[in-house]
Amino acid sequence: MTSPDLTAISSTDDPALLTIDGAIATITLNRPAAFNSINLPIAKKLEQLAAEVEADDDIRVLVIQGEGRAFSAGGDLQTIGAAAAADNVAPVVSELLLHYHAFITSLRRMNKIVLSSVHGSAAGAGLSLAFVTDMCIATDDARFTPAYAKIGVSPDGGGTVGVVSAVGARRAMQIYLAEDSFSAAQAYDWGLVAKIVPATELKSATRALAERLAQNTPSAIAATKALIHQAHTTPIEVQLDAEKDAIIDCMHTDEFRVAVKKFTSKGK
Q1: 89, 93, 8, 3: which is closest to 43 by C-alpha?
Q2: Domain 6-214, what fold?
């Protein structure tokens, strides 16, 4: 593992923090006393930080993690409950999701690999965040709790995007309507989690995986991510044309020329 050369972008008092270490950026949900639940200030901060990461061409991998005992407990029910009691839930939740969904959209759109690093509980919008990323690594004792059906609501935060694309409609229906919670091992079996590690190894294992992902060239990361995320909604003829255009674009890069020269010179 390389020696860290961290650049801190955020104040430690912010509800979400950004650090950059070479080609790897890390966003940390920083409301540990509230189990990193999502309220308006953190939603706005996450939108801002994701835009900064998206605009930085030197970043290849973004890690999302939670401070404290949980990854994220989901939406802040104190805020939402108060709004419901005051009969102004529509404007309150609409403003919250305006910023939070802009953050989620940026994660899916950005030409970087987004890796969620999950410990403790990921519930509601926290579960959605864990699985709307491109890849998830979790501790062996992590728990995933859909939570939405329990309070009589439907998923948000990209929950029906990440989960459905990973497991299909029938399993997603089961997860959101028939599961109280499920383990990291179940999530791994269902294809939602890429790797499970002991809790004491999460940070080092996340770093090792992020470094492995960052070895890919920017052009390969961007093209592969875009192709995969559009595949399930794109007609095959259009998808094959997109594959053709993307691979040709990648082949125009210096990284490709160097790699091919290295490969073809082996054994000579």
Answers
A1: 93
A2: 2-enoyl-CoA Hydratase; Chain A, domain 1 (3.90.226)
| Helix or strand (DSSP H, E) at 225 | helix 218-231
Q: Where are the domains of the chain?
A: 6-214, 218-264
Amino acid at 104: I
Cβ partners under 8 Å of residue 42, min gap 6:
15, 16, 29, 30, 31, 36
- Per-residue pLDDT of 57-78, as tens digits, reads 999 999 999 999 999 999 999 9
For the stretch 3-19, pLDDT in tens is 456 777 666 889 999 99
Give dist(CA 124, CA 62) in Å, integer: 22
DSSP state of 199: G
List Cβ neighbours of 159 (8 Å cut-off, separation of 6 or more).
125, 127, 128, 131, 132, 146, 148, 176
Helix (H) / strand (E) element for 21: namely strand 16-21
The structure's pTM equals 0.92
Q: CA-CA distance, 184 to 192, in Å (whole number)?
A: 9
Question: In 3D, which of 81, 25, 35, 31 has the Cα closest to residue 57?
Answer: 25
β-bridge partners, 116: 64, 136
> CA–CA distance from 240 to each of 110, 222, 247 (Å)?
22, 17, 11
